[in-house]
Amino acid sequence: MMEVLKTVPVPGVRGAFEILVLAVLFYYAVLFIRGTRGAAVLSGLVIFLVASLVITRIFSLDALNWLLGQFTFFFPIAVLIIFQPEIRRALAELGKGPVFSTTASESRMIECVVHAAMMLGDRKIGALIAIQREIGTRSINETGTRIESPVSTELLAQLFYPNTPLHDGGVVISGNSVMAAGCLFPLSQREDVSKELGMRHRAALGMSEETDAVVVVVSEETGQVSVAYRGRLSREFDEERLRKLLNKVLIRGRRARSPLKRVKEQLDLSPEGVAKTEVLSKEETKSHAS
Asked: Which fold would CATH assign to domain 101-252?
């Protein structure tokens, strides 16, 4: 074993840098395809190719093995075709990252959501609006109809207007855009949820349990505006209280914690760290709702 290790060349500074770059590119490539429909297609294709190469090599099927080897040459082209929609969207959104986002645009988005929720509540029109934060919602978006339009009060009100094609699902907002409408949110399976809450509120809770999104829900029966955040549902919001909560969570709450601090919190999987995270989550939810 030692002799074998001695034959392995030790990478220098340039080699270590290249390995680091490749690792980062591979990591972000995995993040990019995770949760998309193309991911299942790509996984199936890779499994098929590897299994076929192994089988043809074991049974000495040289001709088939050679053909499969030639096919792998076109694998990058297949990847481009499979992920063409995602690649096109990523290139289109390249200049719209957090570096270029402004507090003014976020505040405008919050005002549109608040006004739309109050308007729909006054008219007793049901609504379900999820505002994406750090955890992506691509798989949820794909269950609905892609919109990709700037947020506006009129657009949100129109999407939930009764008997329109997309009124019966949820809307996902990312940044300053309505990404998709008519989406199917995951339903909460908790048994301690009040029986008087309908499917919209369960969907809002389920979305807040599986992601860090803030979900605004308007009751069709009472017109009451509620907010689901981190698996907790706060009810009876008026306009000022809803605006205050969204500003705290989406603007001030995001500034308060640095990216390094958020990473450390996510990596602390000890019993003490998990317990601390649960306590902080409850305290933050209570403070935001007050």
From this structure: YojJ-like (1 (3.40.1700)
